[in-house]
Amino acid sequence: MRHGKYPFVIGFLIAPVALYVTFVIWPYAQAFWISMTNWRGLSAPQFVGFDNYRRLLDDGAFWKAVQHHGVLLLALPLITIAIALFFAFQLNVGGKSSGGQRQGVWGAKFYRVVFFFPQVLAVAIIAVLFQMVYRPNESGLINGVLMKFGLDPVLFLVKPNLALWSIIAVLVWQAVGFYVVLFSAGMASIPGEIYEAAEMDGASKVTLFFRVTLPLLWDTLQVAWVYLGIAAFDCFAIVAVLSVDGGGPDGATTVLAMEIYRNAFVYSKYGYASAMGVALFFLTITFAALTLRLTKRESVEY
Amino acid sequence: MNPQSTLPPTPAALPPTTGDPNAAGGRGSKGPRSEVRLFAGLGHVALAVWAVIVIVPILWTFLAAFKNTSEIFSSPWTLPAELRWENFGRAWTKANIGRYFLNSVIVVSCSTFLTMLLGSMAAYVLARYKFWGNRAVYFLFVSGLAFPVFLALVPLFFVVKNLGLLDTHTGVVLVYSAYSLPFTVFFLAAFFKTLPSSVAEAGMIDGCGHTRLFFQVMMPMAKPGLISVAIFNIIGQWAQYQLPLVLLSNAKDKWVLTQGIADISVNAGYEADWSGLFAALTIAILPMIIVYAVFQRQIQAGLTSGAVK
Known about the structure:
heterodimer, A: mainly alpha, MetI-like fold, 13 helices, B: 309 residues, mainly alpha, 74% helix, globular, disordered N terminus
């Protein structure tokens, strides 16, 4: 591969690199600069140093959002992974073993197909769907039932201490199927002999799960945790569409993405919004680095 | 993956679960058996419950799409008294779902095509050609995976605005493609590396140029990888909400489906046209079910490909 290599290489790279630099790298680079200005979009931006960041520290909405990310960061991966692991184990190892061949429970294929489906839907669509499910009167899916039984309706999205959890429930609803499939792939690659050997020694299903499946699945779990953590730092579509007036009631469900959007495109505080963006970036990076560091352990080869 | 290599010592070191002499055989013993049955029974119930939790809200939406407002309020759990197809007509034309749907199809097909073309070109060159700056360009692309889109949102808006592409589909297509490149390049570069070089060399000896080699030999060989990434991109771009919200805010006739549905849900509150909203939701969800039913295997493989790699 000699003749005319460079013209070819350049010809193939120029368009993708140009597009990528214009719309991705260049905006990212600018964001750091804009975050140090008081730009409101009209006059030229003025350099104000770390003023925006200092104001962030006193901003109640910012801290509320950070706090919600903290809750999301713990709850979303924990709940999703726990449910998905349980189901994946059922679907792959839960059934009878015949001739050393591990089998899932009856109907495993059906369950896998159904569970995964919400992953295909757009979050914004799901948010509208659950607006209907959560509606506070007889027309809601859940409250319709409760009120039939003469119970009081639950104000899922209006009660400040319930709203965030109602949103987390929807995120879990969507995510579980994806991780069931992901963990199933991981479990399928664990050789059947290991289970067989363990069963010979009298290991129960519960023991199998905790002492064979879980350790051998560690790498996949780590990936899942990072993915869900990164998802916990976004949440814009779900909060913007599902919650009461974008992050409400009274900021009870707001997230950084929501605050960035509001500050930039409602209040035109571009400098301030960019400072929030930079804060979000450092939070995300710190999380990813910490997770990979803390969960690092010798992976078991098999 | 070598089954003969070391194992965690746990399974072999387990104590027998019961005092029963048969316990060592595992299957003959009473304790584990009943435990197994209980565990499997519980598991079955849990699986069925979750399937219901997934299916019921969607099914309920489909049913409500045929009801009228008073039925939605008085009997949310019963079948509609009659099939009111006019709800769909209203959603399709008056609420512009047809328009939004078409916009989504246009935007996503253009941007996925562009993403795949540019992404595979870059990935191919980066994976299979040695040249000065190769690693730098590769890491430039891959670093994009680490940045949240929200960091760039403000400057991106002005970049698009200054190019005169605000409120145009062209702008959205270019932005979608640009933001899909990191994963596409990352995934496809790894894929192109695994392809055998003997075929490429044979092609070169036969006087095949670099460009023809790529389009006629390497692209067909990379088909499985290309399909996975394409599915990943189609579903990701179809679901986009924040980017069109920012980039198309003032051109309602250009809106994509996610934006449109979210907007209808706001307006449904004012106009109390709940059945129209349910119909709109149905129109948005039903095609996904059909596509998913047909390409279920490929979609699962495509979406999880990023994590398995």
